[in-house]
Amino acid sequence: MTRIIAVANQKGGVGKTTTCVNLAASLAANKQRVLLVDLDPQGNATVGCGVDKNREGGVGYDALLGERPLADCRMRLKETGFDLLPGNGDLTAAEVALMESEQREQYLRRALAAVVGEYDYILIDCPPSLNILTVNALVAADGVLIPIQCEYYALEGLTALLDTIRRIQASANRDLSIDGLLRTMFDPRNNLANQVGAQLRSHFDDQVYRTLIPRNVRLAEAPSHGLPALHYDRSSRGALAYMALASELVRRHRSAGPVPTVAQGGD
Ligand code: ADP
Ligand code: MG
Questions:
Q1: Model's pTM, two decimal places?
Q2: What is the ipTM, given to two decimal places?
Q3: Which residues are CB-neighbours of 214 under 8 A, at least 6 positions away?
Q4: What's 37's domain CATH number?
């Protein structure tokens, strides 16, 4: 069974893109068939995979709006072993077009329908906003992965995201679950990070991934080489952490499965 995971948090710079690219590579290294969908007009995931975001040919825009089949727009990345649906600034135009459309929340779900059976995991890198692109991701997804940087304002905005998830559960996607909250850029020497990390555990319990993603310079450097950390420096702490996350994720899905409802709590 395919699992479609939206990686979402309307805060920018919390590690959504880093998580998408590195988790995709780690899942692929675990012999999972993976499609990464870059739904952010900034196209950072596309660049981080070594793809020219302004290349000729299909991008997420065409697939999202149904102008071309998604199968014709995706790319196979030989070195890293997963597929990418590239994204770029055209997605901003797609956002405008969607706003004027009927059933504007359903476009990504429809675009993915034709290829869904070809993958074990589809990861969607969301823009830093609760806009119609993110809503499309949440409607298409089975679960949401929420990267959280453990700092003072970490929980600010989480309530708005959880409210959006509840609204989508109540309308377009009853089965949407929170797959997990992921603590990113974690520095165990930082007391505040430890406090916020513990606070997340007490509010959200098992919905917090046990795997912690450390702050690691290799994770920050790898995108400028167009590679996931696993293919840039496979023994780096960052690469190892994302390998551990991939194992945890696969284990969770194979055992009890994710918690189906949104936990109470928040800010
Ligand atoms: P988002 O997609 O949520 O905006 P990014 O994944 O682009 O966040 O991360 C923001 C910045 O932080 C990027 O420059 C990225 O390279 C860097 N970064 C992300 N995760 C880590 C990490 N664990 N250690 C060090 N740098 C990181
Ligand atoms: Mg991003």
A1: 0.94
A2: 0.99
A3: 185, 186, 187, 188, 237, 238, 241
A4: 3.40.50.300
